[in-house]
From TrEMBL:
InterPro entries: AB_hydrolase_3, AB_hydrolase_fold, Carboxylest/Gibb_receptor. It holds the Pfam family Abhydrolase_3. This is Alpha/beta hydrolase fold-3 domain-containing protein. It comes from Malus domestica. SUPFAM superfamilies: alpha/beta-Hydrolases.
Length: 224
């Protein structure tokens, strides 16, 4: 009789890898992180599947006070989590998107993406490209023809914002799309905003020197 799978990798209980290759990833509820949803009712939101092959969804946010006669800029928001944890529906990321939509009077697109170690890089970056391609298909009438996109989005004013690992994705998205984002036409990305972007390489940078973080150590991130 074989032995039961044992934990061979434990990232503070949030992400556990077992000897048989199986993985357990905890939700915010599981790890007792009590982050309330802060919603003042100024923004409407809904979830849409943008990649049926990988069963990936995004959350679309629109300010309720938007002028029906004017188009809204589009802001993509890619969440952080070291490429290993997190979801666009987590309260901290959800709250951020509500503030972005309300404060900037913008249509916010917050996609999910595949996580490591099940899906090693560049899977997450491929998914970021897929999310932009979804918007492009919407613009060309080749997708679901979502009313919020067709009636509200100013596709000539698109911005990409990423936090931590999401900032890394924003950088690579800029590289993939190229100068002027011509590959995504008629979607035109006007700028990229990298919030505390996470980068790593073969050679350590100065920012990687010193004691490792307790949650996402360099050893764990190297395997992303």
């Amino acid at each position: 009789m074989g032995s039961l799978p044992r934990i061979v990798e434990d990232c503070m209980g949030v992400l556990q890898i077992f000897s048989d290759g199986s993985i357990k990833r905890c939700s915010l509820t599981d790890i007792n992180v009590n982050i309330p949803v802060i919603d003042d009712g100024s923004v409407a939101f809904k979830d849409i599947i943008f990649d049926t092959k990988h069963k990936l969804s995004l959350r679309l946010y629109k300010p309720k006070s938007a002028n029906l006669n004017s188009k809204l800029p589009v802001v993509f928001y890619f969440h952080g989590g070291g490429f290993c944890v997190g979801s666009h529906v987590w309260p901290n990321f959800h709250n951020c998107c509500i503030r972005l939509s309300s404060g900037l009077q913008s249509l916010v697109v917050a996609p999910d993406y595949r996580l490591a170690p099940e899906h090693k890089l560049p899977a997450a970056i491929d998914d970021a490209v897929s999310a932009v391609e979804w918007l492009q298909k919407e613009a060309l009438g080749e997708s679901t023809n979502d009313a919020w996109i067709g009636g509200t989005a100013d596709l000539d004013r698109v911005f990409v914002l990423g936090d931590s690992s999401g900032g890394n994705m924003a950088h690579h998205l800029a590289v993939r799309l190229g100068m002027g984002s011509v590959k995504a036409a008629p979607v035109r990305v006007r700028g990229y905003v990298l919030l505390a972007p996470f980068f790593g390489g073969v050679e350590r940078t100065r920012s990687e020197e010193g004691p490792c973080e307790a949650l996402l150590s360099l050893e764990i991130l190297d395997r992303s």
